[in-house]
């Protein structure tokens, strides 16, 4: 006889696309273990991938079963959209067409427009209207925008894309430079695109060093580094990992997805903000509205709010506008493919 405790939560349905891939391999374990949605939240995992990857997905399912994780109530591997998106509470869209050697950016956009148009329509038709949608697959900002446009019945505020990996990279670089642990650095900002034009900004960041909170510029004491190599390192970190590892940064990306969703589910800490690609409507920074753009945000009750009124100097403004221009170019190219 099986007893169910009355205080136990109902399972939530979590979809991960590209579930046979590298990022998902780390991510799925973290979700099923309770690192993302809470240690008392049962999970139903829906693993969606393309038909040729189903044999690999079977192996992933076996491994998850063999972990004997008490929160994991059911695993549903599938290649069918209508199964994958049915009644889901969270959609983590990791799968996308990767850029291959010799592929032009426009070719990458064209392939992904088709994928995320289909997934947006599936969200609109099958998912709960309260679903939280996180886009990880690159080009993440534009993929997120396309999915949003094809899911008109789901609030735009329920869509976000991952720039938390860039945020974490920026925190880590500052922490290493100051000789402190990364949790001693807060309120860095990633503006714009999850691409090489992104702007890692520490003008409002705080570093806790020797028990004293200092602005990042005072703590680092090297403006030339903060305006030069620091920005380049964060912008080009993904390429550096691929060059060294011969594979993409799957572990750190999965970790960033966990951080991103956990903050959506449980909120950001008081007085702190994180970076997240969100719909730009109504922002106070003059960024064109019909974009998914990374801003500093605070989150409460699963609702994000852009932190308004942050001062920006000419150096920052130029970089914020440059990454916005790239996103407008991506958006216009993607919309052209749709028409």
From TrEMBL:
Which residues are NAD(+)-binding? 49, 112, 136-138
Q: Which residues form the active site?
A: 194
Which residues belong to any copy of the Lactate/malate dehydrogenase C-terminal domain? 163-337
Extract the InterPro entries matched here.
L-lactate/malate_DH (IPR001557), Lactate/malate_DH_C (IPR022383), Lactate/malate_DH_N (IPR001236), Lactate_DH/Glyco_Ohase_4_C (IPR015955), Malate_DH_AS (IPR001252), Malate_DH_NAD-dep_euk (IPR011274), Malate_DH_type2 (IPR010945), NAD(P)-bd_dom_sf (IPR036291)
Q: Name one GO biological process term.
A: tricarboxylic acid cycle
The reaction(s) this protein catalyses: (S)-malate + NAD(+) = oxaloacetate + NADH + H(+); (S)-2-hydroxyglutarate + NAD(+) = 2-oxoglutarate + NADH + H(+)
The answer to whether keyword Oxidoreductase applies is yes
GO MF annotation: an example = L-malate dehydrogenase (NAD+) activity
Q: What class of enzyme is it?
A: oxidoreductase
Full protein name: Malate dehydrogenase
């Amino acid at each position: 006889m099986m007893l169910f405790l009355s205080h136990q939560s109902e399972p939530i349905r979590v979809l991960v696309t590209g579930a046979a891939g590298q990022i998902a391999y780390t991510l799925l374990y973290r979700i099923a273990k309770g690192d993302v949605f809470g240690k008392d939240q049962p999970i139903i995992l829906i693993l969606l991938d393309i038909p040729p990857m189903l044999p690999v997905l079977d192996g992933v399912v076996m491994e998850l079963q063999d972990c004997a994780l008490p929160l994991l109530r059911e695993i549903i591997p599938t290649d069918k959209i209508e199964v994958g998106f049915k009644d889901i509470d969270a959609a983590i869209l990791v799968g996308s067409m990767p850029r291959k050697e010799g592929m032009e950016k426009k070719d990458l956009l064209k392939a992904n427009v088709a994928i995320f148009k289909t997934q947006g329509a599936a969200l609109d038709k099958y998912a709960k209207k309260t679903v939280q949608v996180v886009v990880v697959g690159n080009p993440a900002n534009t993929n997120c925008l396309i999915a949003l446009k094809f899911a008109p019945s789901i609030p735009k505020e329920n869509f976000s894309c991952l720039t938390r990996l860039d945020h974490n990279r920026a925190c880590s670089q500052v922490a290493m430079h100051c000789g402190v642990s990364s949790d001693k650095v807060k309120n860095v900002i990633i503006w714009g695109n999850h691409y090489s034009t992104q702007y890692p900004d520490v003008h409002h960041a705080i570093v806790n060093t020797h028990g004293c909170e200092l602005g990042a510029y005072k703590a680092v004491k090297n403006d030339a580094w903060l305006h030069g190599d620091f920005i380049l390192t964060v912008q080009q970190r993904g390429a550096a990992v691929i060059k060294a590892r011969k594979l993409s940064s799957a572990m750190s990306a999965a970790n960033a997805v966990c951080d991103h969703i956990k903050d959506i589910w449980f909120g950001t800490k008081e007085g702190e903000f994180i970076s997240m690609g969100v719909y730009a409507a109504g922002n106070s920074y003059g960024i064109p509205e019909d974009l998914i753009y990374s801003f500093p945000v605070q989150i409460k009750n699963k609702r994000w709010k852009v932190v308004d009124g942050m001062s920006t100097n000419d150096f920052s403004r130029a970089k914020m506008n440059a990454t916005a221009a790239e996103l407008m170019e991506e958006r216009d190219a993607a919309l052209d493919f749709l028409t």
